[in-house]
Amino acid sequence: MIQHQAPISGLSLFEQQYIATAGYDNQIILWNAQTRQPLQRGWHDHLANYCDFSPDGSLLVTASSDGSTRLWSVPEFKLQCVMTSHSDDVMQAKFSPDGEKIASCSYDSSLSVHHKDGSFICKMQGHSGLVESFDWTADSLQLLSCGTDGTIRAWDAATGECLAIKETEGHDMDALVTLSAGVFIVGNNDGELQVINGNTVVSTYKGHRSSVKKLVKSKFDNSLLSLGYDGVAVLWSIEGQTLVEWKRSEYPKEIWARSAEFQRRDKIYFATFGSTFAIWDIARNHWDLEGFVPSASLNSVYAAEGVIYSIGDAGLLKADGKDMGGPQSLCNFVVKTGPVLVCGGQTGQVFDVLKNRVVYAHHAPLNCGVNFKLDGEQRLAVGSYSGDIIIFKVNDRHLEFVSCHKIHENAIKGISLHGNCLYTGCADGEIGVTDIRSYEVINKITHAHEGILNDLCSYASGVATVSRDLTLKLWGEPRAAIPSRHTHSIKCIASNDDGNFIATGSYGGTVDIYDCTAREWLGNVRKVSAAGISSLTWDDEKQRFLASSYDGRIYAVELG
To answer: Of the four, 69, 255, 413, 457, which is 20 to 30 A from 161 by CA?
Structure first.
């Protein structure tokens, strides 16, 4: 049966005939828009991030973390060509409005343009951070792009020349759409939508309580959809250079606010964290999840007191393989703090599994957590997509909220305790050092990595970090930058109980262990899964590492 086995990250529609979806299972699936049945599928070598139909529906372009942009015939789904002008993950690829060209943006900080036959036209370089989003102008002559460097740039699509740069006071931007010549809308990490004409901000609207993840302009009328990490979908009417909000709805926990498209004036299709897409009937405010099956992917594994806990996209926690309940929404971490078993993820809710209750609701998704003791009291620190750490304490077997502190301007990807400090790793490559008594930031290391910092852990001499740049970095004494033996982006990291061995896991399904004493990699790289490694933990009872995978399994990785 053709369906997605991991979250859907990209979605595109052609009239009322076809739907295409791109998934973290590397699949591209073509669906019948009327029957919702799968018709064809294709594959990338790594995560499929985005897809877009040509204006006439005869071609589909797809973007992937394998570094390629691929072109497929529709409906046969025969691969027409592979474009490889980027050196890192390709996040978006879109046809020009006239259908003659294809543009793409990448985490290598560049954009590229090709003819629709795959022949190269030009490359656009100038962003100093990740390029998160771009859009074509209506005449197909220019591109507008935005990203983590806080700039919006206009480019000549024929030559690659940068025509203009708009500074935005350091705002990280994930979303951009063009309206008309020189007029566009961006969404930033403060939850704001800004209408910009040339170099002037015409108007600003507070649409969300956290980052704006996606902006979608309707092809049928003047409607605009904004999606935020706060779990809210907002519909706006574009009236000249003014936005007027006309509908707001909390979207279901199964929805991934990464991709959506209007099918007609009253229906929008959405990406999900499962097997198929969802439909929002705007007039009835009804969310249709027909055929949806939660992904089996695991996002976190945690070993404590001889028990192995795991949780993933379905939000169902397991202890030694037995169901323990859970929030039934995508979770990124599980951790045991004293007698309390806690998980959290996409909804921003901190969930007490044993008591089956929500302890705290944050305005942005949660990524990671670590327990520690302060004056003999059990504490928990949780890292969020909004760059906050949220502190809890255990009181009479209950978890209680203590405080929330802004540490970073971007998502916290990893958190660990070393000495009397919490160390946090941010997606923009920054490391934060926070005192556990005052919760004051006492140090920051910027540009710790060349790519996204994906995770960090403490080890014997300090903290260690991993990144998309395929480098293990040790921030103790002495500091060291160690080239890894992985061929795909390094997703996760963990150390053993005495901190002398560090395990790293990649999106390619490999685990490699570094011996801190000998200062060398241990043995050979271990290929443990055909899917990516999502998290690592140390199993103290059996003196081994455990790796969770996006295939829904947990793998034991021995030191020997």
So the answer is: 69
Q: Give residue-wise pLDDT tens across range 162-215.
A: 999 988 766 678 899 999 878 999 998 889 999 999 889 999 999 998 889 999
On the question of a cis peptide bond just before residue 327, with omega within 30 degrees of 0, the verdict is: no
Q: Which of 431, 385, 446, 441 is nearest to 410 (CA)?
A: 385
Residue indicated by tokens 């206009």: 154
Nearest to 153 by CA among 194, 110, 89, 215: 110
State how far Cα 526 lies from the chain centre. Answer: 25
Taking phi over 0 as left and psi of -120 to 50 as alpha, with beta for the rest, 11 belongs to: beta
The amino acid occupying position 369 is G
For residues 507 and 489, the answer to whether their CB atoms sit within 8 Å is yes
List, for residues 76-101, the tens digit of each pLDDT value: 999 999 999 998 889 999 999 999 99
Condensed to tens digits (0 to 9), the pLDDT of residues 343-355 reads 999 889 999 999 9
Which contiguous run of DSSP H or E holds residue 387? none
Q: What pTM value is reported for the model? A: 0.86
Report the distance separating Cα 230 and Cα 225, nearest Å. Answer: 14
